[in-house]
Amino acid sequence: MPQRRSLVSNPADELDHGTLRPDRTGQAEAFDAIGERYDKAFPHKEGQVEAAEWLIRSLPAGSRVLDLGCGTGLPTAGQLAAAGVEVVGVDLSGAMVALARANVPEGEFHQADLADLRPGGPLDLGRFDAVTAFFSLLMLPRAEIPRTLRTIRHLLVPKGLFALSMVEADVDDFTIPFLGANIRVSGYLRDELREVVETADFEIIGESSYTYAPAAADIQPEVQIFLRCGRRA
Questions:
Q1: Contact 79, 57 (CB under 8 A)
Q2: Helix-helix angle 190-199:145-155, to 10 degrees
Q3: Which residues have a Cβ under 8 Å from the Cβ of 76 and sit 6 or more positions away?
Q4: Which residues are within 8 A (CB) of 219 and not within 5 positions of it... i.e. 6 or more apart?
Q5: Please, what is the Cα angle at 15 between 9 and 19, to 5 degrees?
Q6: pLDDT given for residue 19 in this prediction
Q7: What 3-state class would DSSP assign to 172?
Q8: Is 159 left (phi over 0), alpha (psi -120 to 50) or beta?
Q9: DSSP H or E stretch at residue 27
Q10: Contact status, residue 2 vs residue 172, Cβ threshold 8 Å
């Protein structure tokens, strides 16, 4: 296990998005190779479905939602689109974006890095009534996660909603085998995750967790944490 680092960086650094130099070496290529096998390895996504249902219940008709790390578009983007929500998805993997466009033709999907959405960054998608980040932030080093949460806050309208999920683990940019590829992941223990999210000016409205056993031999059972949050004004 790698050595633990500080959970929350200096607030001034969190706003200095221009200093980001993300290293995504191999991350997009791994998910390009995984493609449709991802949904087969994770066939049951009760926590993710439940979190999207919370958003659907909480948002007025015609709301605009950003799905960060949209993957194949299933289930989240498809679930939101079927409820009449305007869905915009972003993923680093071109193969995943192509699958999302095929699976959810009503949605708008972009191949981009989460860092591209920072204030003044190269991709301006406007503002959103809600943002989802289901297991996408775990692909970032811990040093980037507070900054990315600030970016998410920037993308939300006042009092906008944020649904987040992470795997509970005390790791930072740690290489693991994943469906025949290697990816780098980060995580927090539960109380630490709450601290990072609240420090980024989100209120945690609700929380749930699931013990999940993926349908793939090289992925260990995991505890998935889902946070339902609101943007503080």
A1: no
A2: 50
A3: 48, 52, 67, 70, 132, 134
A4: 41, 178, 179
A5: 85
A6: 55
A7: coil
A8: left
A9: helix 27-34
A10: yes
Amino acid at 150: R
Reading across the β-sheet that carries 202-212, which strands appear in turn? 108-111, 86-91, 64-68, 128-134, 156-167, 222-231, 202-212
Written as one letter, the residue type at 172 is D
Q: Tokens 């249902």 belong to which residue?
A: 53
Residue 57 tokens, joined: 């219940």
Angle ∠(60,92,67) on CA atoms, nearest 5? 10
The pLDDT assigned to 18 comes to: 52
Burial bucket for residue 39 (CB in 10 Å: 0-12, 13-18, 19+): middle
Dmax of the chain from CA atoms?
46
pLDDT in tens, the chain (233 residues): 333 333 444 443 444 555 556 888 889 899 999 888 888 878 779 999 999 999 999 999 899 999 999 999 999 999 999 999 999 999 999 999 999 999 999 999 999 999 999 999 999 999 999 999 999 999 999 999 999 999 999 999 999 999 999 999 999 999 998 888 899 999 999 999 999 999 999 999 999 999 987 766 667 789 999 999 999 98
Q: Is the dihedral angle over the CA atoms 168, 208, 14, 97 positive or is it negative?
A: positive
Q: Which of 59, 61, 91 is nearest to 74 (CA)?
A: 91
pLDDT of residue 87: 98
State phi, psi for 230 to the nearest 5 degrees.
Answer: -125, 145
